[in-house]
Amino acid sequence: MTQRICSIEGCERASHSRGMCKMHYKRKGGNGQLYRSAVSASERLASGLSVQPNGCIEWINSVDRWGYGRIRFGGKTVGTHRAAYVLAYGPIPEGLLVRHSCDNPPCCNPEHLLLGTVQDNVDDRVARNRSYRPSA
Predict the structure, then answer these.
(1) Could you tell me the residue ranges of all domains in the chain?
(2) Which residues in 82-102 are b (16+ Cβ under 10 Å) and which e?
(3) pLDDT tens-digit profile of 42-72?
(4) Per the confidence metrics, is the pTM higher than 0.70?
(5) What are the residue ranges in the chain where pLDDT is below 70?
(6) Which architecture does CATH list for 41-127?
(7) Alpha carbon of 70 to those of 60, 66, 108: distances in Å?
């Protein structure tokens, strides 16, 4: 008798139930879909984006109190704009942050994202009149 393997692409473990190994069987949710941990970060990010007429690609799922999307990425919860930047351009150098040229916090369009320092970000905020203390 030949041993069957898991039906999940890329998995070579022995089949346990319903064509899946024990790990994938346990990850299966009530809706029949695998839990998020089995889905790549780029797929999770793409599933929550919507293209807007102004060229922004906005995160339409939950956002924090400042309007930035949040996603589990690389073992940490980070802003969706940071995850989009890393997926498009690679790692963010230490000491730099990801700024929006469009001034739209939920935007994840890599063309609207650029690196900068904290001072660059403060200068953007003041120039766009979003500062709590415009004279700062």
Answers:
(1) 1-38, 41-127
(2) bbbbbbeeeeeeeeebbbbeb
(3) 888 888 899 999 999 999 988 899 899 999 8
(4) no
(5) 1-2, 29-39, 132-136
(6) Alpha-Beta Complex (3.90)
(7) 11, 11, 11
